[in-house]
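Hi R.,

Here's the input for the S-adenosylmethionine complex you asked about:
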Amino acid sequence: MVNKIHFGKRIAALRRKAGLSQTDLAEKLGVTSQAVSKWECGNAVPDIDILLELSRLHKVTINEMLEDMDLLRELTGVETGRSGIAYFVPEQERDCNVEWADEVRGGSWIKRNWERSRAADAYMDALGKQIASCHGIILEIGAGPGGGYMPYVLKADPDATIIISDLSPTVVSEWKSLLDKTVDSPNLYYAAFDFCHMPFRDSCIDVISDGGGIGNCEGEKAKALKEAFRVLKPGGRLITSTGFVNKETLAALPAEAQKILLEKRPDVFEDLYEDTVLAGFGKIDSVISGCWYTDDDESTIADLARSLGVNLKFTSYTRYCTKE
Ligand SMILES: C[S@@+](CC[C@H](N)C(=O)[O-])C[C@H]1O[C@@H](n2cnc3c(N)ncnc32)[C@H](O)[C@@H]1O
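And here is the predicted structure with S-adenosylmethionine in place:
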């Protein structure tokens, strides 16, 4: 059976891509703009002659317009539920995360970050364009309240195919409700899963974008990198950003602070290069993008640094890893 909602979203996206208003399209097809509006809202499907016209106009097959493709089912074998989100973790937030999830929701973090991402940002806009230009299936992992690179990819290409994912079901559902209202693209998919155990079959994703998810990994970062390698298609890329405390910064700290930090947070001193090589990536390019200091931050590592009386400098980088 034809999914009218899906069909409506798809033809609305095609119309927008062609730079046509509903009235322009109605004129071209010799129908009323109310008829176009009805199709796009999922209340009706046009007859076969009009479908043929649409297919010629947008240079897509009728099947591509009509087919209710469940990308997540195709890639994981699991159907997206009625909520439009595929869950590979319990739908309820984990006890340890409830407080944070409430803050994300109550403080409208996602809406605020989305609005912030609409302003010009040379570095992020360029990265968004670069990721969008790879085409194919983009998987945003650990999207978090900032959405990683996804908001910038959508700025570059509102019709990009993106799977928006996070371990936190709240983060995923909050992104879905915001993007349903703002972008309403048929090419956005939502999944809650642990990126150290991705639910996808091997070699099926074109690009994995990660704006700080692996850097803040709950679990083993090395395992996340291995999983990224496994699910990428040959030639596919992982574009990942994070930060670390380099050897010079560590050496300049008081001995006691060094000892405690190495004991409690050895992960912040890892630049993950070796793990990226061990995961299998053949071509790895890293670009230093800047730095940040714990005194300006509210993270757990910032709290620990403050308790030790030190202001840690993190070097931020973006890494382009190709599965050759
Ligand atoms: C603090 S956020 C920062 C990065 C995030 N991309 C952003 O732009 O806000 C880190 C996110 O990574 C997610 N995360 C951490 N470990 C994860 C894992 N193993 N699998 C999936 N998501 C994870 C967290 O739930 C959180 O939303």
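One thing worth noting: The chain has a mean pLDDT of 95.

Cheers,
M.
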